Amino acid sequence: MARTVDRIDDLIARLDIPVGDRALIAQALTHSSWMHEHPGEAAGHNERLEFLGDAVISLAISEALFTHHPDDDEGLLSSRRAAIVSTTGLARLGSRVGLGEVLRLGEGEALRGGRRRPSLLASTLEAVVGAILLDAGWDVARDWVTRVAEPEIQAALPPAALKSPKSRLQEHTQRASGGRPEYRLLEATGPDHEKVFRIEVVVDGRPLGAGVGPSRRVAETNAAAEALAALAATNVPAGRAGPSRRSRRSQAGAGSIPDAQDSRE
């Protein structure tokens, strides 16, 4: 227990903001699986704080993008935001501040690799931001979010680079034949907490790429990237359509800004 306390205090120091309610930050780091194994040792788990932090992050990122990219239209700003606040994007920010190391997980969830799972890192970041809002107010919460996400906010990527390989490949197949790429699981190896997936993508009835990753979603993204490379080698254009307005769980970024089509895994 003392070790967990020390880790929470270490995180509070890394946040570099005034924290008045330490218990609120501790709750933000508490997954429901930990609560089930340690009843009565925390005020509650972090799911309600996730709800609050989700809204705070979206508004803070929207305001920052509006300011830093004055020449972008509404569609491009929406694409930039979706790339940052995707599950993968928020997981990157969570890793940046070391949330995986301090997240309070049940033993089973920890053994299944929960500390590295993008969905848990993303939801924990949301919870921490919700806790900061309640403890220190909007100005502190907004400034902290934009400071952590500064590289992504200031990135001047072209519109095409904001789309994930899966989005670009799907746009190509819809233009070319009206169909959709088909992703097939070739194999899944390793123990449950360290699975490695190999996925094949079939376009217009023929295999065009394969990808490997620690989740089906990552493997599918890598397979789509290989398929796009194959199409480019045959001079078939892919993914030139402009960005559309979508929620963060259905839109994506690629390259140095992450895939936002990932589901909460």
Query: What's the rounded overall pLDDT mean?
Result: 82
Determine and state the CATH class of the largest domain.
Answer: Mainly Alpha
The stretches of 5 or more residues where confidence is low (pLDDT under 50) are 239-265
Overall tally of domains: 2
Tell me the overall shape: flat
Residue share in β-strands: 5-15%
Structural class from helices and strands? mainly alpha
Strand order of the largest sheet: 1-2-3
Tally of helical runs: 13
- How far the N terminus sits from the C terminus, by CA atoms, comes to 28 Å
Q: Sheet bearing the most strands, described?
A: 3 strands, antiparallel
CATH topology grouping of the largest domain: Ribonuclease iii, N-terminal Endonuclease Domain, Chain A
Record the SSE blueprint.
Elements: H1 2-15, H2 22-28, H3 32-37, H4 47-68, H5 74-84, H6 87-96, H7 99-102, H8 107-111, H9 118-136, H10 138-148, H11 150-154, H12 165-176, E1 182-189, E2 196-203, E3 206-213, H13 216-233
Antiparallel strand pairs: 1-2, 2-3
Helix pairs in contact: 2-9, 4-5, 4-9, 4-10, 6-9, 9-10, 12-13
Would you mind describing this structure in some detail?
This protein has 265 residues and is mainly alpha-helical. The chain folds into 2 domains: 2-156, Ribonuclease iii, N-terminal Endonuclease Domain, Chain A, CATH 1.10.1520; 162-233, 2-Layer Sandwich (Double Stranded RNA Binding Domain), CATH 3.30.160. Helices cover 54% and strands 9% of the residues. It contains 13 helices and 3 strands. Strands 1-2-3 form a 3-stranded antiparallel β-sheet, with helices on one face. A hairpin with a 6-residue loop joins strand 1 and strand 2. Helix 4 (47-68) packs across helix 9, helix 4 (47-68) packs across helix 10 (138-148) and helix 12 (165-176) crosses helix 13 (216-233). The longest helix has 22 residues, at 47-68. It starts with a helix and ends in a 32-residue tail after the last helix.
